[in-house]
Each structure stands twice: as C-alpha cells, then as structure tokens.
Amino acid sequence: MTLLGEAAVTCNSGTQLHNELLHSGKLNEYGVIVPFSADCKGQFLSHVVSGSVASRKKEAAFPRSPPSHTAPRRVVRSTRHNQGMSRNRLYYFNVTVFGKELHLRLKPNRRLVSPGAQAEWQEDFQKVYQEPLKQGCIFTGGVSGMPGASVAISNCDGLAGLIRTDSGEFFIEPLERGQWEKEKQGRAHVVYRRSAIRQERAEAVKDHHNEVLGFSVGQLPNALNVIEDQVGEAERKRRHAKKDDYNIEVLLAVDDSVVRFHGKEHVQNYVLTLMNIVDEIYHDESLGVHINIVLVRMIMVGYRQSISLIERGNPSRSLEQVCRWAHSQQRSDPEHAEYHDHAVFLTRQDFGPAGMQGYAPVTGMCHPLRSCTLNHEDGFSSAFVVAHETGHVLGMEHDGQGNRCADETSMGSIMAPLVQAAFHRYHWSRCSKQELNRYIHSYDCLLDDPFEHNWPKLPELPGINYSMDEQCRFDFGVGYKTCTA
C-alpha cells in the first residue's frame, strides 16, 4: 500500500519529526507505505521488520532514574562475535518507493561500531550511566535487479535509513517510533526523496569552514607538544589496517537539544542510523580511497554542558569550545578501545547565522585539538552535512572554490559549497579525490584497525597434535586405546 502526496496521516505521541516534515511544508513529496520481510525471491514472509533488539528496547533504554554511581565495566572487545547473526546471512525486505517495489538485500554492517564501544550519558558534567553501544541492527546492501543501487539502513525500530537507486536517493523511517509491537498487522513508514526536503532559505544553507582554527598559542594547553609526542610514539605501536584501508575512529557527541528532540529511548537508534549513512557515503567508489567510519564511543551530553559549549550566533567560538571539550574526553591510553581519532558533535542549537549547517577546520585530522566537526542536526539529510564537514577535516575544499570543480556542484557533489537539492546521485568530485590523496598518507592515526587485536595465543587442544589412542596411552599407560563399543 502506498499513499502519495498529502496523505491523511494520524499522528500520535512520539511523532515530532514527522509532524515537522509532513505538516510544516518542509517535505513536498512523500509516500506512506507498509514494508515487509521477504525471502530471497522477494516473497512475503512477515510484516515484522524490526530486529530482535527492538523487543528488548525498553530494557536497554536510558533509565528514568539512572543510578548516581555506576560500577565500572570491563571493556569486552569480542562483542561483535556474539550478535546472534550468521556472518554470511542476508536479510531481505520489500519496500515500495513511489510505486516501484524494491527488494532490499542486506547484510549486517559489522564495522560501524568497534568492539567495546560504549554509549555514555552525562549530566552536570559527570557520567551517570553507560551501556554497550548497539551494533546488531545496522545494515548495508543493495537492491535486487539494480546493480548500481546501495542501501544503508537499520531495523532497530522499524526500517530507517537511505536507499539509493538510479532514479534518486530516498529516506525511509517509521511514521511512529516505538510501535514494534504493532508490526504483525503492518507498520506504516514514510518514504521521501532527499531532493524533496525544502530548505527555507536556500541562500542561507551555506557550509562554513576555516583554514586555521582560531586557537592562539596562549590558549593551547602548555603540554600540547608533549601530548603530540606521546601520541605519535604510541600510535606506532597500534595495530595497522590493510594497505590503503583507513579507519576514522569517531567519538560521536549528541547534545541535549538532539536528545530532547528525538527522545531518550530513540536517540541512540537514530544517530546510529545517521552514522551508517555517513559510512555509506564514504564508501562511494568516486572517493577513490577506502575509508571506514567507526564509532568507538558515543556521549549524550547533558543540558548544562550543552548550553555552555554552544555560543549562539558564534560558530568559531562554538567550534573551539566543542573541540576543547572533545579533547578533554580523550582517553589517555591510545590502546584504549575508546581512543578516538575524530569527534563529531551534533546539535540543534543555532551556533551560527540562520541556516548554517556545519563548521570545521581544514586538514585537522589526527590533531588533538583540530580533528572535530560541529554539525547542525536536522534529520537524515544531516548525514551529508557530517560527511561534508569531515571532508574538510580530511583536507577537502569546496568544489569550485580554489579548484576547477565548479561544474560538479550542480550534479550532487558532496563538497559543493551550498547544500542543494540532490536531483542527481551524490558523489565525491574529482577535486575532492585529488585533495584527499594529497593528505591522506599523512594521517597516521587512521592506519590502525580497531577490529584486529593482539589476542594471547590460546593453548592448543590435545587433539591437534595427538590422536585419541595416543591420548589414552598418555593417561592410562601402554596397551590402552580408544573404546569404540
């Protein structure tokens, strides 16, 4: 079932995002559909599309009355091996996108969340609660019969994410969150084109960045040089990724304005889906380099801290404070599972002029104080803002500004200076590719692989070197052998 245009939709509590999109005029074309789980041939199996994690959502959600003191938890680095999913299993869903039924073929994205990653809640500048970061409901894949299509989606609570085909880029999300218990009868989802999101002030939705972040020598920590020397020495001891394979280990900070908008019970699922889309954008072949976005830590920033970090109307000062805060959250040991290379800060506060989407330093990657971005969160389209700002930190300039790629801005290039309606498939321009290649080899912090660890060698079992008969002789003496009765 598909309803197009101004469909009659009844919205209950928890639909703030959809009220904003569907009823404020920001979305000029959408469809309301009921997706379903399918088999490998696209045949209907069930209307239940949420993973098993959804049924346990309330248990995992941030408690209403978090304990004031949480016992320290041992970091478990092997979490990814215990997800209850077969590594080779594919998952299938059928989704109708503006009259065309798509058969999604998905596999778990096991490299978005690192082993041992934690989701942490802070209040009044202190950690009050933490839990392992979810990683069992994030997927990537393609569409049957569409070789060029790609999908970055989650089923933590319904289907949510990005579907990219030759005919366009589409976002999907449940019409109402937290309604997985109703899925057996079919659960309504909204599908809309990325290009259908109306910008209220097209001239104002500019991205801003600065060549050198405004930190004076006096403002930097006195021990900055020592810190950099220590980090450089420790980095050489870290496990290296495969050649030409880079991993950006990310601290994802979600401020109170984002938490309040999406709700404490839903915000983790939402931002995981958002970052899964960012990861998919960085896997586009036009980039020419294989870069993985890996979440090593997520912090939900408390109200007082959030308002102290963002100075309304002052993007430079806000970015400086956010970068300093991220540096203060860094783990001292580079071998720690939550040691990050880069910080992504999401907020709904107005840190700059009306319509400003993001702010970031250029070529700041791996620097203790400059590897960070400030991003205005405004739905799944914000994934392209995060990708764009992180591109600046990697050394990319705006297309058409100081390079010869102005012709690509109208074709959907990620580094276009204006966030434009995407009537074309997104891609990285030839200039972005060249600028990245100019700097990527200098970012040593991206060379280690958080999924490979120097595990101690397990003792070999006797059966590897000795037959059953030999083991019997060792235990009971000459003349004994395996009983075959």
TrEMBL record:
It is found in: Secreted. The active site is at 389. GO terms for molecular function: metal ion binding; metalloendopeptidase activity. The keyword Secreted applies. Gene3D superfamilies: Collagenase (Catalytic Domain). It holds the Pfam family Pep_M12B_propep. GO terms for cellular component: extracellular region. Keywords: Disulfide bond, Metal-binding, Secreted, Zinc. Zn(2+) binds at residues 388, 392, 398. It comes from the Eukaryota. The keyword Disulfide bond applies. One of its GO terms (biological process) is proteolysis. Residues 246-450 form the Peptidase M12B domain. SUPFAM superfamilies: Metalloproteases ('zincins'), catalytic domain (SSF55486). Residues 59-78 are annotated as: Disordered. This is Peptidase M12B domain-containing protein.
